[in-house]
Amino acid sequence: MANLRQVAQYGLNALLKAGAGKAQCVVTFTDKHEMNVELGEFSLLRTTFDTNIRLTAIKDNRRGSTSINKSDNESIDKAASDVLAIAAASAPDEAFDIAETQPPAEFTSGSDSPDLDTMYSSMKKLIHQVEDKYPKLVLMQAIIDFTRSRSCFVNSNNVDFVTNKGVYNCTFIFSSKDEDKVSSFNYTGFSLRDLEKDLLECGSLDILLKQSTEQIVTRPLEGKFVGDVIITPDCMNDMLYFISRALSDGPMISGTSIYKDKLGEQIASPMFTLHSRPVSDEICNGYFVTSDGYAVQNSTIIESGVLKTYLLSLYGSRKTGLDRAVNMGGAFVIDPGDTRFDDMIKSVKKGILLARFSGGYPSDNGDFSGVAKNSYLIEDGQIKYPISESMVSGNFVEMLKNIKGISRERIDYGFSILPWVQVSGITVSGK
Amino acid sequence: MYRLNLHDYVKLFSSYTELRAQENRVVRIAFVKGNNTANSRSATSGISARVYKNGSWGFASNPEISEAAAKAVIQAATENAVFLDSKEQKGRGPLPKSPVTSENDFSTKKPRLGQRELVDFARELDDHIARKYPDLASRTVSLDCLDMEKTLVTSDGSYSHSLVPRTTIGIALSFIKDGQPVEFARPYGGLGHFEDLFTAPGELYGKIEEQYHHLMKKSEGVFADAGLKTCVLDAELAGILAHEAIGHTTEADMVISGSVAQGKIGQQVASPLVTLVDFAHSYNGQTCPVPVYVDDEGTKAVDAVIIENGILKGYMHNKESARYFNVGPTGNARAYEFSDEPLIRMRNTAILPGADKLEDMIASIDDGYYLIQPSNGQADSTSEFMFGITLGYEIKNGKLGKAIKDTTISGVAFDMLKTVTMVSPDMKWTNSGMCGKKQAIPVGMGGPAIKCKINIGGR
C-alpha cells in the first residue's frame, strides 16, 4: 500500500498547484476483519480494505471539498482540480478557514493487527454461554470486528498529524422466543482494546440478555400517569444525541439551539456532569484529530449542571463568535452519582425503567415522545413486570433539570461510560 | 466509472461466487440561514467478491477496480469461506439458481449541470425563502444526490449493470414562538438525476408556501392527547407504515429469527381492505422510486406479495432464505457500498389503494387526528412499530382543528391493521430516507390514506 504521508503530501501539493489559497488533505487507510453470527451460528467472514482521501480547498473565501477512495497520482490530480471548481461554485464566506500551525504529532492506540483466532474463539464461547444460560434467547445477529485505521492530516499551515488506531468492536441484536411468543428485539455494543475478557462480561450484554428472556411475556400499561423514569445506560447513549446536536454548528449557526446564550448557566441538575473524553485511557474507541485539523483534548461539557462549552468547529466558532470546542463531542463519560441502582428503584412510587427508547427525533425545543421498549413498570419501589404498548413523552431540556438521582454503577462501552439516570415528570401512557 | 470486464474472472470462481464492481457518487450542498455550509462531491468505488461454501460465506473487497484487485478479492473471499466452512462444517447444499441478464440505466439524457449551477439553484431557493418569509428564525436548503452504479457477475451465469440515481432537495423552516424553536422540514425529489426532476427554483415556491403555512399553524400547535386514537394516516404515513410495521417483520431473515410473522402464512393478519406488496421495479406501468431488476445475488427481482386482502401471503427473500422456506427467491438481496455484502432489504413497499375519499374519512371521525408527515421510524420483531410525526392536525366533529406538536405514533401491526376501516384511492410514493439494517440503503415507500386506530404520544 502506498505510503500514507506521501499520499497526503501529494494531495496537499496537488491542491496548491491547482490554485488553492488554503488547502488540507486527509488520507485514511482502513482494513476491517469482521465475523458475523446469525441465529447463533457463524455465517460470514468479511475482510475489507478501503482508502479515503478528503481534499478541501479555500480560494477567495470560497470553499469546496471532495472525497475519493483512489490513491494514485492521476486520481488525486483530477480530484484536486475538481475541488477548485467546486470551491469556485460556493458562496463566499470569510469564516471558511483551516487549522493554524500546531506541532506535528503521531497518535497511536490499540493493536496493529487482529487476533483472528481469539476473535473466533471469544465469539464461539459467547454462543455456548448464551445457549447454556439463556436457552430461550435468539442471538439474531452478533458481529465482532477488528478495524485498523491509519490516517494522515496535513494542511497548508503545516499541520501534520498521523493517527494509528486498532480497535475491536462488537454489536449484538437479540430477542427471546417461547413457542409462538417473542420478545421485542434489543441491541447493544461495545469497543475493546483486546479480547482478554469474556464478551458476556463486557458492556451491558449480560444484563440485557437476561432481561430479554424476561420480556417474552409483557403487559400493556393501562391509562396514563406522570412519574419517574430510570433511564438505563444503553438508553442514555441514544439520548445524549440531543445535547450533542443542540450544542453543535447547525443549530448554533442558525440560532435555533435551545442552549443558545446558555454558556455558564445551569441547564441541568447539579448532580449531572458530562465529559467528552476522546483521548483518555478509559475510552478505547476515541479519536485524536478533529475533522478541521486540531489535536483533540478532553473537555467537560456540563459540570454540576452548568454548561461549560459548546461543540463548535472552527467554522462554527467564527460564525458565532464563540470559542471553538477542543473536541467534536462523543466519547461521553457521565460522572457516577451516590445512589445505588437498587436504592434508586426503591425510591420510585410509580414509574418505569426505560431500557430502550424507540421514538421520533426530539424537536428542536427538546420535546420527545416514543415507545418504551424492553422496559419495566416500577411500583412502590419494586420492578413489577415488563411492559409493551406503552409510550413516554416529555421534554429533554426539562428532563435534564429534573434529574433526581444518578447511579454509582456505570457501564463501560469502550466508546462511552454511563450510569443509570433517574428523572421525574415524564408522561407515561398505555392503551 | 471504470468498467472492468467482470466476465474475464468467472474462470477463477471455485465455488458459488458473486463478483461486483460498484461506484456510489454523492453531491451534497447546503445553505443554513444563507451560509453555504456544505459544498462537496465524493465518489466511492471498488470491487468485492462473496463466496458460498456449504452454508458459510466469505467476503472481501478492495477499493481498486483492476485485474489484480479482482483476482485478490476472489481469492480472499474464497479463503474466508473455506476458513469458516472448516470451522463450522454446516454441510448445507447449493443455493437456488436463476441466471439472468439485465441492463438498466436511469441516467438523464440531458446535459449534466455543474456544481456552480447546483449551488446557484440552492442559493436561489434560500434567497427566495429569506425574502418572502422574513419572520422565520432560520431555514436550511439542502441538495443531496446519490448515484449507485453496479456491475455484477455470478457463478450461476447472471450479469447485470444498473445505474440508479436519486435526488433530494430538503427544505427546513424554523420559527421561534415564545422563545421556543419550531421546525417543519420536507423533502422533494425522488428517482432520477437533478436535471430530470428540477427545472427552475420557482417550481418549488408553491410547495414552500404550503410548508410555511403548515409551520405557522404548527407554531400554534397543541400536544396530542396521549392514548389510542382513531386517526387518518395520510399517504406518506401509509408508506412508512408498510415499511416499518409489516415490511421489516416479513423480511425472511427476521422471520427465521422468530419475528411475529413466523408461521402466519395464510392467516388473516389485517383488515380485508389491506393489500401490501414489495414491488421490484414497477407499479401500474410506472417505475417505482427504487427500481431493482436484478438483485446483488444475481436473482431476477419479482414483486413480493406480503398481504393480500388481509391474508399473509409471503415473505421477502434472498437465495438462502428462499432455500430455507422452499420457495423462489424474490430478488431482495441488496448491498449499499461496494464493500458491503447483500442483505435482505425492501425495495418499494406499498399498501395498495382503496375506494374511500380522504374528506369522507376525516368527516367520519368525531375525536381523532389527521397525520400528514412522518420522520424516522423503527420496527420490532413483535411487529410493534413506531414512527415520528412532524405534521398533523386534530379532528374534532369531522373537521380539522388545531395543528399538533411533533409526536410519535405506535401500534402492534397485526392488531392495528385489523382496525383499518377506510382506504383512499390515491397513491403517493416517497424515497428520500435511508433504511438502516447493518448498512443504510435507499428504499421506496408508497400508499394511500388510511383510517385506523393507533397509539399516539403526547401529554
Walkthrough of the structure:
The complex is a heterodimer of chains A (431) and B (459). By secondary structure, chain A is α+β, with helices and mostly antiparallel strands. Chain A folds into two domains: 4-214, PmbA/TldD superfamily (PmbA/TldD fold, 2-Layer Sandwich); 219-431, no CATH class. Chain A is built from nine helices and 22 strands. In chain A, strands 9, 10, 15, 16, 17, 18, 19, 20, 21 and 22 form a ten-stranded mixed β-sheet that branches. In chain A, helix 1 packs across helix 2 (73-89). Chain A is globular. Chain B is of the alpha+beta class and 459 residues long. Chain B folds into two domains: 6-219, PmbA/TldD fold; 227-456, no CATH class. In chain B, 20% of the residues lie in helices and 41% in strands. In chain B, strands 1, 2, 3, 4, 5, 6 and 7 form a seven-stranded mixed β-sheet that branches. Chain B has a six-stranded mixed β-sheet with strand order 13-12-9-16-25-22. The mean pLDDT of chain B is 95. The chains are: A alpha+beta (431), B alpha+beta (459). Strand 3 of chain A pairs parallel with strand 2 (35-53) of chain B.
Query: What is the 3D form of chain A?
Result: globular
Mean pLDDT of chain B: 95
Low-confidence stretches of chain A: none
Our count of helices of chain B gives 9
User: So what's the oligomer here?
Assistant: heterodimer
* Structural class category of chain B: alpha+beta
Pair with the biggest interface: A-B, 75 and 89 residues
Tally of distinct domains of chain B: 2
Radius of gyration of chain B: 23 Å
* N→C terminal distance of chain A: 60 Å
How many domains comprise the coordinates of chain A? 2
Distance between the termini of chain B: 53 Å
**Percent in helix of chain A:** 10-25%
Radius of gyration of chain A equals 24 Å
Mean pLDDT of chain A: 96
- Helix/strand-derived class of chain A? alpha+beta
Quick one: overall form of chain B?
globular
DSSP strand count of chain B:
26
Strand proportion of chain A, as a percent range, falls in 35-45%
